[in-house]
Amino acid sequence: MRRQAFLKTVLAAAVFPFAIFFAPAKAADQETIKVGILHSLSGTMAISETVLKDVALMAIEEINAKGGVLGKKLAPVVVDPASNWPLFAEKAKQLISQDKVAVVFGCWTSVSRKSVLPVFEELNGLLFYPVQYEGEELSKNVFYTGAAPNQQAIPATEYLMSEDGGGAKRFVLLGTDYVYPRTTNKILRAFLKSKGVADADIMEAYTPFGHGDYQTIIASIKKFASAGKKTAVISTINGDSNVPFYKELGNQGLKATDVPVVAFSVGEEELRGVDAKPLVGHLASWNYFMSLKNEKNDAFKKKWADYARAKKLPGVSKPLTNDPMEATYIGVHMWAQAAAKAGSVQTDKVIAAMAGQTFAAPDGFTVKMDEKNHHLHKPVFVGEIRPDGQFDIVWKTSGPIRAQPWSPFIAGNEKKKDEPSGRSK
Q1: Which of 140, 199, 259, 408 has the fewest CB atoms within 10 Å, i.e. the most exposed one?
Q2: Is residue 150 within 8 Å of 404, Cβ to Cβ?
Q3: Can you tell me the distance from the alpha carbon of 392 to that of 283, in angstroms, rounded to the nearest whole number?
């Protein structure tokens, strides 16, 4: 019997030599839509990115509980690029080419996004990027659900210069040494110059990823601030370096009343491992804070707390939400809405359907995906650190503001169109 079965197989292959290449897809693949999650679950950025993987999975579960997308359940494919920037590109290619995902939710640092961008453009994949960034980029294949500089960095700096923000006259631009901090600080230098701040009143310093010793830098900041003019620090430090930075602030007694720090990459999750009491009064600028009081945020926080406990996630005793989590959550749901509208998960059809998509967000506003520039219209908040690691809102915009991907403070940007092309510029 075995010999007869073998002969039948050989004969079939001889008569239909291509049949083995066109075997039907597995039933599970036909019944689900694969979606990729591309976040560092190890390495220096795991402190910030792991939770984004988890909130994406929560949103996927919500969508599946309501019937999925186009009658199919979403099947997440999670990979760990391990805070290794070239590995991000390899994992992105794997997700699109091998796993055949319809969309990817991921990246935190701009260097990781820059690493994967050519892959998404070449393979016509779709990336939802959930973190504030430096702008100066606009790709057909990316939707940016985090803030552009005019939705975070510029408003926060204006606040520091205002009477309510302390009337700062001197500025320390302190960041991790990669594209986001350097480009953001280039924009901020030009902005400060337009406001009459001299170069001598701006100090700029960078540290590598994973840097842990801030004694010398904070001593230099104290010396810079001793010139007599009100000084503020604008921090674009990323990842786990924030823990020793804030600890050293406390060690050297640098209080917010002396030299306020406003951070663009520090939220509730990063403050989890820090004694926040010496940091009271220091600031962060985001488009969402956990402490916002509205019905949508109450529901979001409850969903997350219930999910974290059910999955027994790290930190389950104190479930926290933050801005990139909200941006991830919005992105997953907006993609599902666009796919339903398009009647397809094909990249170009979803891109067309994303224009003008809206979502009632936990920030308390209905946010909109711009019809042209692939960025969300977002509100801006400045929060002040409380002893419990949460934030009191001390300033906010009256509503969502439109992103400017090409900053007016970068020479030549006035000639660039505010709409994506097939390749990033």
Answers
A1: 199
A2: yes
A3: 9
Tokens of 16: 């239909």
Alpha carbon distances (Å) from 388 to 158, 267, 271, 316: 27, 12, 9, 16
Distance in angstroms (rounded) separating the CA atoms of residues 6 and 128: 49
110 three-class SS:
helix
Q: Can you spell out the DSSP letters for 371-421?
A: TTTSBEEB--EEEEE-TTS-EEEEEE-SS-B---SS-TTSTTGGGS-SS-B
User: How crowded is residue 288: how many other Cβ atoms within 10 Å of its Cβ?
Assistant: 29
Distance CA(423)–CA(44), nearest Å, equals: 30
Element containing residue 283 per DSSP (H, E)? strand 283-286
Separation CA 48–CA 325 (nearest Å): 10
* Cα dist from 188 to 194, 197, 202, 256, 282, whole Å: 10, 11, 10, 21, 19
Q: Order of strands across the sheet with 104-106?
A: 73-79, 32-38, 104-106, 127-129, 142-144
Sign of CA dihedral 166, 172, 174, 177: positive
pLDDT digits (tens, 9 = 90+) for 221-279: 999 999 889 999 999 999 889 889 998 988 998 899 999 999 998 899 888 877 888 88
Tell me which amino acid residue 149 is.
Answer: P
150 near 403, Cβ under 8 Å?
yes
Rg of the Cα atoms in the chain = 24
Angle between helices 179-194 and 153-161 (to 10 degrees): 40
